[in-house]
TrEMBL record:
Domain DEAD-box RNA helicase Q: 1-29
UniProt motif (Q motif) ranges: 1-29
Name under which the protein is recorded: DEAD-box ATP-dependent RNA helicase CshA
PANTHER family found in the cross-reference section: DEAD-BOX ATP-DEPENDENT RNA HELICASE 47, MITOCHONDRIAL, DEAD-BOX ATP-DEPENDENT RNA HELICASE CSHA
Organism, scientific name: Lentilactobacillus kosonis
Record's compositionally biased regions (Basic and acidic residues): 483-512
EC number: 3.6.4.13
Annotated Pfam families: DEAD (PF00270), Helicase_C (PF00271)
Biased composition (Gly residues): 461-478
Length: 519
């Protein structure tokens, strides 16, 4: 359905056109007319289906742009999602002069207070920081008209339900309430019954949550084999833009640091990082300076990256619905994507549950051998050497090159170059995680969904680098020291991987041991 058929104004349609949108997604097509009609709506759909525009477009059309009161409040579970939502609403409303402000932990609250004095019509924020502003009387909701609860199930899993209810009680009863959630647990249904007026339920069916554009595989593997198996897939498949999902923050730290040790351009993202570090990682990922992003489910909820080619589930998700969210990061905008899930023998029953939910049968995939992985490295190195020759002023080095050819065999010289641009055989040990229980769900707080409120507020342990890993560039609890890390960087040991290609390298033939321990 086209946006022009949904009752939106010409100015909003113009903003939609400038943003490059053409047709409304199912959640947008069903939700927008209801919101314009003043109805409370419960929307059930996965991340990446266009929920922000589903509530943002009608709210932008209905707010009084000349008014000085806060008219719409959007509550998001994470800083990343709050920032992303604020940016999208600003982009859609800037031509009309809409003011949209984001408030979240891990950032200077004084600056936010000053920005709130500019009288935004719409505020987007995380529960903890919103409550902080309400208690400080810097966020006044007496004249609020529209309340949006985005990713409500994630806020529940992170322990924010009481905060949400406290916020709702500070808003006028005569308001329009919109609730969006991927799943609908009883606690979220209770919020709908208690705080919404005759809400209309919009649900995108499970069969629409996966796409034929995504090839979905699983690899049956023992826990201690996961890391080596995954890196072999990297070498063979040469993924361009990759997200690896881990179930816990420790897992994310260890896997990302292990990948760095092996020469991949990787970084970890989870709730214990400072906001500045999270922003830096996301910017580098978007710019292509990082090829592999390792993340927890919670941290990834706020990510909107185009062009993700591969998703690797290092850990099978603790909630089968989360699989849909993970896989939905690839195969977007008509592009082909690949998803690979690593499952231990004890987790095979759980994998079948995921297949039932998604109505897709994952295909078994045989892990590449060491020889196949090395061949993949050499193919990437061949391309890299060719590019290096094309961009090098060879005349400048001709005399020394001829001298080296006289002194050494040409084959030996090329072999040494290939050794430089392929990775060292660095051994990495990842702390084992307990597999999910057979046929049942693991504990809610045992996964990447942390109940640590700093995931959203960030104003306590994680503020200013005070949290675990706050200033450690990824928060690793790994067992190698800083000096060895600095030495490794100085020597460019292991090289860097760039879209299947390497930058730099280390000529040592010695095997290195890189053991990450549970701190």
């Amino acid at each position: 359905m086209k946006f022009s058929e949904l009752g939106l104004s010409d100015s909003i349609l113009s903003a939609i056109s400038k943003s490059g949108f053409e047709e409304a997604t199912p959640i947008q097509a069903e939700t927008i007319p209801m919101v314009l009609d003043g109805k409370d709506v419960i929307g059930q759909a996965q991340t990446g289906t266009g929920k922000t525009a589903a509530f943002g477009l009608p709210i932008l059309q209905k707010v009084d742009l000349q008014g000085k009161d806060i008219q719409a409040l959007v509550i998001s579970p994470t800083r990343e999602l709050a920032i992303q939502t604020q940016e999208e609403l600003y982009r859609l409303g800037k031509d009309e002069g809409a003011k949209v402000q984001a408030v979240y932990g891990g950032a200077d609250i004084r600056r936010q207070i000053n920005n709130l004095k500019n009288h935004p019509q719409i505020v987007v924020g995380t529960p903890g920081r919103i409550l902080d502003h309400i208690n400080r009387r810097t966020l006044k909701l007496e004249n609020l008209k529209y309340l949006v609860l985005d990713e409500a199930d994630e806020m529940l899993n992170m322990g924010f339900l009481e905060d949400i209810e406290s916020i709702i009680k500070k808003t006028p009863e005569e308001r329009q309430t919109l609730l969006f959630s991927a799943t609908m647990p009883p606690e979220i249904k209770r919020v709908g019954v208690q705080f919404m007026k005759d809400p209309h339920h919009v649900k995108i069916k499970a069969k629409e949550l996966t796409t034929d554009l995504i090839d979905q595989y699983y690899v049956r593997v023992k826990e201690y084999e996961k890391f080596d198996t995954m890196t072999r897939f990297f070498d063979v498949q040469a993924p361009e833009v990759t997200i690896v999902f881990g179930r816990t923050k420790r897992r994310v730290d260890e896997v990302s640091k292990g990948l760095e040790a092996r020469g991949y351009k990787a970084a970890g993202l989870h709730g214990d990082l400072t906001q500045s570090r999270r922003t830096q990682i996301m910017n580098e990922f978007k710019q292509g300076k990082i090829d592999i992003l390792v993340a927890t489910d919670v941290a990834a909820r706020g990510i909107d990256i185009s062009g993700v080619t591969h998703v690797y589930n290092y850990d099978i998700p603790s909630d089968p619905d989360s699989y849909v969210h993970r896989v939905g990061r690839t195969g977007r905008a008509g592009q082909h994507g690949v998803s690979i899930t690593f499952a231990t023998p004890n987790e095979m029953d759980y994998l079948r549950e995921i297949e039932k939910l998604t109505k897709v049968r994952m295909l078994p995939l045989k892990p590449p051998t060491e020889e196949e992985a090395f061949a993949g490295q050499l193919n990437a190195a061949e391309s890299q050497v060719g590019e290096l020759i094309n961009k090098t002023n060879t005349d400048k080095y001709a005399d020394m090159a001829n001298k080296l050819i006289e002194e050494y065999e040409a084959t030996d010289l090329v072999a040494a170059l290939l050794n430089e641009v392929t990775r060292d055989d660095v051994k990495v040990k990842i702390t084992p995680e307990r597999p999910l229980s057979r046929g049942g769900r693991s504990r809610r707080n045992g996964g990447g969904r942390s109940r640590n409120r700093n995931d959203s507020r960030g104003g306590h342990r994680g503020n200013g680098g005070g949290g675990r890993g706050g200033n450690r560039g990824g928060g690793s609890r790994g067992g190698y020291n800083r000096s060895s890390d600095r030495d490794r960087n100085k020597k460019s040991s292991g090289g860097r991987r760039d879209g299947g290609k390497r930058e730099g390298g280390h000529s040592s033939d010695r095997k290195k041991n890189f053991t990450i321990k549970n701190g």
